[in-house]
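Now for one specimen:
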Amino acid sequence: MDGNYYMIHDYMIFGGVFAIFALITVSIYLYSQNQSFKKKNIKLSETNKLIEQRLNEVQLEHIGTKLNPHLFKNILNSVQSHAYQTYMSLDKLANVLDYILYESNNKFVSPKEEFSFALSLIEINKIKINPLFDFRIKSKIDKLDPMYEEKVFAPLISVDLIENAFKHTDFLSQDSFISIYLELENRIFTIKVSNKASLKNVLEKEHSGFGSQSLDQRLKMIYHNFYNLNKSSKNGIFTAELKINLGEFSDKVRYTR
């Protein structure tokens, strides 16, 4: 009887040890599988990010191929319709074309370069308006701002707002005007454009097609949450204001590299 008791006791101990061993083995296997799944998920996540990044780059390249000829055509139309000022126009046009052909191929330029381009673009567009027309341009550029010469500015961002102001202004109205304000201060870029437009032009502007859409797409893909674009129309006055926090964007890019 005692012998059977001890045998049963030994079998129970052996069974318990075996069960514990089996539980440990299964736990190790499950843990190993879990780690393997985690590694695969990480790789899949990284792959998805690379695919998304490449897709954004392709979309931006596609937008750029449409944007440059569109801008070039508008500029040539301005120069052609005012031949008497061609000499001055060609001088500004040379600067604009250099920027479009060379600098716009870069992913980023400096605010300094974009400001120079914007001012040349404005001078070309001013050719087609009466010298007595109420045209206002102001700038507040802090050349000591750390972002002033940093490559953090997507080229041609200022095109859409400036071009649309000249395109949709009601030049026949006595109280018509165009106002452009450029600012770089505390690492924040601001461009604010206002113009007096007829109701017809405002409606056309709301459905202006590629230019406006491309600007929104580029801003979302490049600057994400670091920009704010507001457009409004009241009493025939259309206003668009774009702010880009170049400082925070630069910090993020530098941190993620």
